[in-house]
Amino acid sequence: MNAIHGADTATVTRMEDLRQSTRSAHQSVDDMVMEMAPFDNRDNYIRFLTLQYVFHTRMKPLYDAEDLNRVIPGLAARSRYKAVCDDLADLECARPEIGSRFEISAQDAERIGWLYVCEGSSLGAAFLLKAAANIGLGDAFGARHLAGHPDGRGKHWREFVEQVNDLELSDDKEIAVRNGAVAAFAYFRNLMGNLPLQ
To answer: What integer pLDDT is reported at residue 134 of this predicted model?
Structure first.
């Protein structure tokens, strides 16, 4: 298993390093999402779902990338794009027109950092799915994209962690992965601040 080298980090895996280096960015996104109060009512939730649609639309090419699927088998099946689309349909909401807005510019190893953020959000969605029940939504209607994998949320995440930790990357690519994760959190914050949702 790959480890980030250094005097104090010899046993820190790539994914642990990503978690540590993006802790504050992750918290800021969580705080902004909670400020939206997405589970107070369905109008708020639709605003949240619109954000999710834009994000997962832009992430889908990363999940479908042939080179990434060669090194992370099963990656394409992890995409939640279809589930988000189904949620919009459940709530009789049209898919927003986003055109060329909010493109993702991730390249090469940076994409792994973006995938880390997207997959990590699935792991943390158990709390959100429970909250969605307060407004009559769940894993079969309206909040499908928050549902865990049939094999179990934790097991699904651990498989991804193992795949990413086992990748052989140069030092430059390690930095690119970390930069990609930071950029992904910044991208989502930008969406919340700039996407017209009402």
So the answer is: 96
Contact 176, 106 (CB under 8 A): no
What average pLDDT does this structure show over 57-70?
98
Q: What is the 3-state secondary structure (H, E, C) of the chain?
A: CCEECCCCCCCEEHHHHHHHHCHHHHHHHHHHHHHCCCCCCHHHHHHHHHHHHHHHHHHHHHHHCHHHHHHCCCCHHHCCHHHHHHHHHHCCCCCCCCCCCCCCCCCCCHHHHHHHHHHHHHHCHHHHHHHHHHHCCECCEECHHHCCCCCCHHHHHHHHHHHHHCCCCCHHHHHHHHHHHHHHHHHHHHHHHHCCCC
Closest CA to 117 of 191, 186, 50: 186
A 10 A CB-CB count for 176 gives: 20
Q: Which two tokens stand for residue 92?
A: 């009789």
Do 135 and 75 meet the contact criterion of CB atoms below 8 Å apart? Answer: no
At 198, the pLDDT band (50, 70, 90 cuts) reads very low
What pLDDT score does 51 carry? 95
Nearest to 110 by CA among 184, 193, 188: 184
